[in-house]
Prior knowledge:
Layout: H1 2-33, H2 37-74, H3 79-103, H4 105-112, H5 118-131, H6 135-150, H7 154-158, H8 162-175, H9 180-202, H10 217-247, H11 254-289, H12 293-320, H13 322-330, H14 337-351, H15 354-369, H16 374-398, H17 400-426, H18 431-460, H19 466-487, H20 491-510
Helix pairs in contact: 1-8, 1-11, 1-20, 2-3, 2-5, 2-6, 2-10, 2-11, 3-6, 4-5, 5-9, 6-9, 8-9, 10-11, 10-16, 11-12, 11-14, 11-15, 12-14, 12-15, 12-18, 12-20, 13-14, 14-17, 15-17, 16-17, 18-19
Amino acid sequence: MNKTAVHAVIMVLTTILAKVLGFCRELSLAFSYGASNVSDAYVVAFTLPTILFSGLGTAMLTSYISVYTDLQQNHPSEEKPFHNQVITMSFLLSMLFVAVFLALRYPIVRLFALGFTGEQLDLAVNLSSIMIASLLFLGIGYIIQGYLQMKGRFFAVGMVSVPLNIAVISTILLAHTNYDLLGWGVVIGYAGEFILVLLVALRNEFSYRPDAAFRNRNIRRFLVMVLPIFLGKAINSINILIDKSIASLLTEGVVSVMNYGNRITGFVTSVFVVSITTALFPQLSRLSAASDTKQLKKTYRSSCGIIGLFVIPIAAGMMMFAKEFVQLLFFRGEFTAYDVQRTGEVVFFYSLGLLFYSLKEVTINVYYARQDAKTPTVNSAITILLNIVLNLLLMQKMEHKGLALATALSSLITTVMLLVQLQRKMGHMGYRYLAGTYLKMLLAAGVMAAVTLPFYRWISGLTDSLLLGLLAAVLVAMAVYFVACLLLRVKELGYVVVAIMERLRRKKAAG
């Protein structure tokens, strides 16, 4: 677990840097277009091509790591042909996606933006038609990222979104009313991502030779995993699009408000959850291939504990200061006080489900490592059905707040289902230990809130600077939570400290 923890720390640190740029991207969009028809069209266009393919890309990456790891241990001579065939297949599928989308672009956009008409619909279609070209870089890029993960090159994987964010920020600020430039910025950004990972991979023995000999047992194993994982990921992606589609039925700007709120909470999941699961999955796959169930369970429990250590206090903090965070980040340019209020409400309700969403992502990786893609896929289908029902029920009285709450509730219910099924399949998973650990963390977060809220009210009376007030409150919250976890003897805190010290020791030795 120590090596995995070190890799997780690397991913967390690099992802923080990358996500800061991601926030700057949202800031530039909010500054230039606020929560308007243009920003709504851009959000849908940006979401559609990439999110529809991300399910397939992630499925291929996950299956590639799982099968490749097994071949490394049991059939080394079959590694290279499999590697070449998967990359070839990825590129061909990317071209197919582009062709299908361009042929059906109007009905696809209409399906996922029910409230769009006239010029707004035309803009969304035009932007998505440009952005779809990015899939030609995304497909192979996913596989190369999988290769780098197996090589332990997590720094490059963590920084992969930097070129995209730089390109998108630049084009948003330059576009003004030249909206085509918004679309081309996304294409240029994804091309930059591809070049970055390719250059790093080439320095780590990466090579490729086109090979379309797909009729073999390894490709069959790969596809048997890809199809259900893709369905599961695609369902999750479609779930996000359905939220946006339903949001488009509400008042103007709600799609953008939901997007901004999702970006804030998504920062947490990207930095901590995705970072840890990215570092964790190759290790889980190796343990599963070696049939080391005992160590696999131990690694899973430790990962769940470490995620809780970070996510619980951050979720509490975002609920306490949702409006203040939104005001600090977005309240400028065309982004109004009303937009701040609505986005803050979305952040509050999204935050309720952060822990459950995080647990779900880690647990799904255990299923995938064991080459069981069916169970998570069925769970994802239940999630989308449940979310639609809850959306329609809660939006009547709660509007945008109801959409965010529906997401949190569906995450809670379906995560519990996954946990129960995993214990049935693998036996005792140590949930009692995790429950006790989370209880300690919740208690520590409660103490943190009890101290931080009065402190923030006091410090706000001494300074007119929202930034200084929030910064002081965050520092106090971190200190109180750290001390509370020490007093409550939360073991996961020790794991993280040791991992950071190990990383610093290695860096010092290398320097």
